[in-house]
Design goal:
Zinc Finger, Delta Prime, domain 3; single chain; Rossmann fold; 5-stranded parallel β-sheet
């Protein structure tokens, strides 16, 4: 993927293009920003531009043998290294350091991309620091991280920082429609759910995972209305087992109640994120008072914040589902 194909991240790409234009390539870069905003895609594009056989000085062609190999993960001079289990380990860094001592095999530059660099063990970080202090020629290290907090300050100081930001929902929606031929209604929902993370939105678009999870979650939200307290506790225990998906599931619930509230107050389909569910929203919205919908939205926000503080998922869900049992809550049509 060439720079021109990256959605947004103009500031980050401008810095890298300027380095290419001037021929001032740093030995190490630190790409910092939220997950799913395109850090890895830009790193691959930069590796292509450094080794492209038809480069114009600003970008890769994307179609030469070198670009294709890098995109396919088979170029001998470009390595992408991810954590083994929970962390990037010293053996992984040592192996890359050893390889970096030799000149490029096929391309002009060797490029080593470290995913989740903040997950390096202390030993791995110190090993990497040694090669950053005495960098070999024609070698570029690109560290991808969500934050610099867990990185050694000495590593941060030896890298050129490149910051990445969350993308506007409208840009993500347009990319999903134009590049992946997704129906606009579905693209709108996925873009909203992705919350600025285009990589996550693309993954969902290709696998339809988020759309399937939405159906499951909306069915759950419908069934929970007729559950008593004990049934809600059991449901919380079951839902809590999906720990890795829990944040996204709560986001689905948040967007759903938000759309119900918007429809009850404005009846404007242009404001809906779940546009393809417009008829269902129009049918269900009158069953809730605006005050109750606002209350549920707040409860979900509180649950998400509790999860961010590493609270027990089952207890968070128990609290959420029990607090949703309110005397003010409207009775759902069967």
């Amino acid at each position: 993927m060439a720079f021109r194909e990256i959605v947004d991240q103009d500031h980050a790409i401008l810095l890298l293009r300027e380095a290419l234009r001037l021929g001032r390539i740093s030995h190490a870069y630190l790409f910092v920003g939220p997950e799913g905003v395109g850090k890895k895609a830009v790193a691959i594009s930069f590796a292509q531009a450094l080794n492209c056989l038809n480069a114009d000085g600003f970008d890769a062609c994307g179609s030469c043998p070198s670009c294709k190999k890098i995109a396919g993960g088979s170029h001998p001079d470009v390595r992408v290294t991810a954590p083994q289990g929970e962390s990037l380990k010293i053996d992984q860094i040592r192996a890359l350091r050893q390889e970096a001592m030799y000149p490029p095999f096929e391309g002009r530059w060797k490029v080593y991309i470290l995913e989740d660099a903040e997950k390096m063990t202390a030993e791995a970080a110190n090993s990497l620091l040694k090669v950053l202090e005495e960098p070999p020629e024609r070698v570029v290290w690109i560290l991808l991280a969500t934050s610099t907090v867990s990185l050694l300050p000495t590593i941060v100081s030896r890298c050129q920082m490149v910051r990445f930001t969350l993308l506007p929902t409208a840009l993500i929606k347009r990319a999903l429609v134009e590049r992946f031929n997704l129906p606009e209604a579905q693209a709108r929902f996925l873009a909203a759910l992705a919350a600025g993370r285009i990589g996550q939105a693309i993954t969902w678009a290709l696998t339809k995972e988020a759309l399937a999870e939405r159906e499951t979650m909306l069915d759950f939200l419908s069934r929970v209305e007729s559950m008593d307290a004990l049934e809600r506790l059991l449901a919380a225990e079951e839902l809590g087992k999906q720990k890795e998906k829990l944040s996204d599931l709560l986001d689905i619930a948040y967007l759903w109640y938000r759309d119900l509230l918007v429809w009850s107050q404005a009846r404007d389909e242009d404001l809906l994120f779940n546009l393809d569910k417009k008829e269902t929203i129009a049918k269900i919205a009158p069953s809730f008072s605006p005050r109750e919908l606002q209350r549920r939205i707040v409860l979900i926000e509180e649950a998400k914040e509790a999860l961010r503080r590493n609270a027990n998922p089952r207890l968070v869900l128990e609290t959420l589902l029990l607090r949703m049992m309110s005397p003010e809550e409207a009775i759902r049509p069967g």
